[in-house]
Amino acid sequence: xxxxxxxxxxxxxxxxxxxxxxxxxxxxxxxxxxxxxxxxxxxxxxxxxxxxxxxxxxxxxxxxxxxxxxxxxxxxxxxxxxxxxxxxxxxxxxxxxxxxxxxxxxxxxxxxxxxxxxxxxxxxxxxxxxxxxxxxxxxxxxxxxxxxxxxxxxxxxxxxxxxxxxxxxxxxxxxxxxxx
Length: 180
Ligand code: ATP
Ligand code: MG
What we know:
The chain is an alpha+beta fold. It has five helices and six strands.
């Protein structure tokens, strides 16, 4: 499984619709300061369900919507879609390609989609359990994160190992069953 593409529209500095196409290898994103490199990583975090404005370097969740520039009006919504190559069927869904999308309007209205079908955030989260992908996964290592892992509480470090070992979904199911 690998990230095939990221589509952004109205997300942070990306007013126009832009599609980044990737291949099964290493891709580097380079550009001057403030050109939007980190915004690309923010887009991936956001579509995977990030709910913390702070994690996305904003003050409120609406800050992800293109705020306008001197000669361009603000937009009314932000949209991000990531497409994963799933030909190895690592994601438990019967598709060779999986597209996860999220859209939010200034009114606060929002939606998630998996391959075009509206779904809950929970469905997105569960799809990526034990893959290392996800807002709690280790596929995105942000600034200062290594430091936090090393100096974190043992229980927090344990969560990372659970994810890598592929047992998160069983633990979550057990916790849900015990609540019922
Ligand atoms: P650096 O090299 O300094 O890390 P970078 O390439 O990572 O820079 P980003 O932090 O991704 O840059 O982009 C910052 C830019 O995104 C700023 O110019 C900021 O104004 C713009 N930006 C962030 N949120 C929005 C928004 N909601 N609407 C419009 N522009 C935004
Ligand atoms: Mg940056």
